[in-house]
Amino acid sequence: MPKRSGRHGGIGALGSSGTAREQSHIARRAWLLLLLDGVEHAGASPIASTRLHRLAFLANCLAPVYDLPSPDGKIVKYRRGPFYPDLQWDVDRLVAQNLVSMRNLEHVRDVAGLWFRADYELSDAGVTAVHKLTDSPRAERGHGFLRELAAAYAALPEGAREDAALSDATFTDPLVNLGSLIDFAEWDVRNFTHQTADAFADFVPPAVHLTPRDKLHLYFRYLDRMVERAAG
Amino acid sequence: MTAKRRGDREATGDIAQPRTRAVGGGAVADIIREAAKRDLANLPGGATDDPIAFTTVVLDYIHDRSEVTEAPAMTLPVAFVLSEYPRADGERLQLPRLRGFRFDKQHDIDGAVYVAGSALNDVYELRAAGRDLNAVFERLISVGLGVRPTVVILGGGHEAVLCPNGVENEQTSARIPLRSVTVSRASVDSLLNEFYENWLQTPQDFAPVWHSARRRVPVENTEKVIEGLLFPFARATFRTTHVVRREDEMLSGRADISILPRPDRIASGSCVVELKVLRSRRYHLDPGKAATCPAAVNEQAIVDGLNQGLSYRQDLSCELAFLCCYDMRSENSDTILQQYATEASTKKVDLRRYYLYGSSKEYRGSKPDAVPRRQPKKSQKPSGHRRRH
């Protein structure tokens, strides 16, 4: 497993840390469970670790389209594509808690060095947990967004699913170099994904009014075309 | 904080016009334009967990497939089952998984069942479902899929059977003809009449518009329910050349259903359809306590509908505007509409009224050739039979 910053310090730290931190952990894991539930619902599970991180990145970028705050608006522009150490930490904990199942774990070496691959899916206990989570109106709103996001993602051709995030408008910002921080958490003008999704309104016939759901689906289809273009 | 930072960024000249920068101009703008143009007609018609959205995805797939000449012919029914957790269903039934299904229009789907998620892309295939609709229903029930929302495309692909509550409940299935029709007053009228006659004229389990038909109490948000029923019907009819959209729950002040030319195809004709419900009673959980709806409220609904129809027709530059009044009142009379007929005609809004009967018996009794009930004679003496207690 890749190393993670020691900021939150493991399960023990979760138990002994302050309430705010605990709530932050819980909120992050709830979001992750809801994302995996969306992937299940769309029929795209199990999802490979690389794709999960990339989809989580797109979820963070696109949440404002649904008027939801981005759970994590900061990410290092990593050479392997979007990757969140904190998210991986949470996935591992959820696997340990039997809320998420892991298949096909393998360690690989690529041009960037040692790495890993695994496939994840919601377990039966995870499904039950999601049902409990969605009793809360706040979680239900996020759930609606994440299910729609996963449906739009799952509607892409297989190859485009892998690389969609690499063609994302925020991730491909030419002003951010590899290894630098992409930060659209407070600098909302840097969320080019959100802006591109909004830009569709300028390109449809004037009679058509796009909903957030429309923008989300159109954005994923735009990514599909961008992936196709990148492939030459 | 954000505003200040945003101001700082703009001051540096880095991001003077965010949207322009995001779009990037040139090739990227072209791709956005292309995506907007080509994909507009393919957007799902509802939220991902809404069976109507799944229905539109299936109908779109069948429609697109019919335009592919190399696609194998369909002679047997094909069923599409919406599963909340398709992997779980697929693995339970040990079905093979097909990836990228919606892009493979040449796959032989004849006589198969597809267990799918809302995206209809990763599906699980069950072959040899059955030779006719009943056999398909039995097959689905036998493998435990009888309660899942299902769309069955009948052989030939000219008709779909929608089972939003699953095939186990046959009463809740409804048929939609699949065809390709251009937009005109006659074709929209024909669609609205067919929709009314098949789905709404008498109470149907698959079209739950009555909370209590006997007491003539409509369900809550009846207009939305009817809109959700009419939408797949309209989409299945006009999709070849038109973008059919319904008012989204997040939008207000939009046409209930709009039928506009597809930007990626050559098409003519456009239409907005505004839906209103006329009622005798308002919704109440307890139908016995449902309050009476004053006539003035119904009249106001007609006036609002006419103004909306006119406004949306102008806003969307549509040729046609229909105001459909679904009449759920006790009295089947078009007097209420007559006073607005001239105004509707002047404003070029086609005004239509469809009366919803509370029962099939009531409908049969309303026919001109129906035998009226004979009134008992007042002078008739009571018979010698006494009721036993």
What features would you describe in this structure?
The complex is a heterodimer of chains A (232) and B (389). Chain A is α+β, with helices and mostly antiparallel strands and 232 residues long. In chain A, 51% of the residues lie in helices and 12% in strands. In chain A, the strands form 2 sheets. Chain A has a 3-stranded antiparallel sheet with strand order 1-4-3. The radius of gyration of chain A is 17 Å and the shape is globular. The two termini of chain A are 34 Å apart. Chain B has 389 residues and is α+β, with helices and mostly antiparallel strands. Chain B is 35% helix and 17% strand. Chain B is built from 11 helices and 14 strands. Chain B has helices at 2-12, 18-23, 26-39, 51-66, 86-92, 133-142, 185-200, 222-238, 295-315, 335-346, 360-366, and strands at 78-82, 97-98, 113-116, 123-126, 150-153, 159-163, 174-177, 210-212, 217-218, 242-246, 257-261, 271-279, 320-328, 350-355. Chain B has a 7-stranded mixed sheet, sandwiched between helices. In chain B, strand 12, helix 9 (295-315) and strand 13 form a beta-alpha-beta unit. The longest helix of chain B is centred in the C-terminal third of the chain and has 21 residues, at 295-315. Chain B is globular and about 70 Å long. The model of chain B is unreliable at 1-21 and 383-389 (pLDDT under 50). Classes of the chains: A alpha+beta (232), B alpha+beta (389).
